[in-house]
Amino acid sequence: MSNTNYIFVTGGVASSLGKGIISASLARLLQARGYSVTIQKLDPYINIDPGTLNPYEHGECYVTEDGAETDLDLGHYERFLNQHTSQNNNVTTGRVYQTVIDKERRGDYLGKTVQIIPHITDEIKRRIKILGTKHNYDFVITEIGGTVGDIESLPYIEAVRQLRWEMGNHSVNIHLTLVPFLKASGEHKTKPTQHSVKKLLEEGVQPDIIVIRTETPVNEGIKAKVAQFCNVQANGVIESRDVPSIYEVPLMMQKEKLDVIVLEKLGLEVKKTPELKTWNNFLKRLKNPKGTVDIALVGKYIELPDAYKSIHESFIHAGVVNEVKVNVHMVNSETINAETAADLLKDYKGILIAPGFGSRGIEGKIEAARFARENNIPFLGICLGMQCAVIEFARNVIGMEKANSAEMDHSTPYPVIDLMESQKQVTDMGGTMRLGAYPCVIKKDSLAYKAYQRINISERHRHRYEFNSMYLDDFVNHGMIPTGTNPDTELVEIIEIPNHKWFIGVQFHPEYQSTVINPHPIFTEFVKATLS
Length: 532
Ligand code: GLN
Prior knowledge:
The protein is globular, with a radius of gyration of 25 Å. The model has no long low-confidence stretch (mean pLDDT 96). The longest helix is centred in the first third of the chain and has 20 residues, at 116-135. Helices cover 36% and strands 22% of the residues. By secondary structure, it is α/β, with parallel strands linked by helices. It binds glutamine. Residues 355-357, 383-384, 407, 462-465 line the site of glutamine. Glutamine binds next to strand 19.
């Protein structure tokens, strides 16, 4: 086995306590100490990947460079570490079972009865270890989705138990729990944490470190109690208070010495605390904006900010570059029409039309694109948002009545957005879109070039439909031009309207590549345009 150290992050008491952010924060701190780190998420559901899941079920589907459709936590990992993740960084029960069942069909188990233990657990262990062995990271942080005690997470906890037994002092378990504050009695309560640790112990895993999520600061007595009843060292109880921004969590964890305790547990040398200069600078600017700007995000999941997670985060990064706080206002595309558009959108300095699938809310998105175009309001259309801008332009500028995307209307007379050739034979829904990073070449005299400052870029995709190049001349003659194309296929990836203050539609998803260290230039230029 290599010298990789494995950190397992489990959760108890409740879901959504922020295991992903704690994992990403710890990774950031270890990275600042010069270690190579990667983070992996194990998701105990049976879907092969979240690509087929509705955003109501699962929030945003994040797409990696290598085209994996993954959990949105991978977005946090990339934004915190400024480092790509891959298919190997997200494992689901579906994928684990699929591999085992395929092996069984091939006869690889040589007549044995195939069982959860050892076959499923072995496959989980293989997928955890592969990151360490293949890429030789110093640390692999594995976040186990769900909550201890769930039936579906049992094989994962068992795999962790076995790995800890095999790896000895090359592994650490961090258990994240909730310590609620009871107003009636005026005190923090540790019992749920105690119970959740008991559950973990029942499954054979003793945590080394307990991170307690709390709304308000807990006193030392509470920490001591958790330590005593949960059998961890006093300095192994870490407080994770609610903070206004997730980007404060690494610094909070540094103050709490989470990284130091992890290094000590692994018997590694603890050198002096590294400075997080760029991170601190980012936070300083984040907390002290010189102004604010209101931007509309037109989409159909208005009550679900997680559906557009990476877009929200990209606006935070771009706001910091421009020294403003971007207030993103969700506008329900289903409520927008020719009569309501002005009322619903007039107060915003910029309009972003979100990615999406299916026809719900599509006419509202098209109307929003018209409003932005006609009123010279800075506009960014992402994927479906770009497609809506194209449809709108075809209908209202070129005069192609009933122009549409073939996704919404099979029999439109003008399929200005059409199914890609490569998609025509596809029947399976899962993992079959045009996914992952593709190169794009940018025209020099364009807003895109102004943003990227180079002609060769690479951006991530997740779609089946495309700009229909059959109509390219009509668009160019009327003032909507392609400024970015795929060098191999000539697919149109970026459109702009030069005769407008700032109007860009991108077929790809810039939001997947924005990080704290590298805010995305399309977002920073968009926000800049809303300020002038
Ligand atoms: N539904 C559109 C397509 O498949 C756009 C997808 C998206 O916005 N991600 O092409």
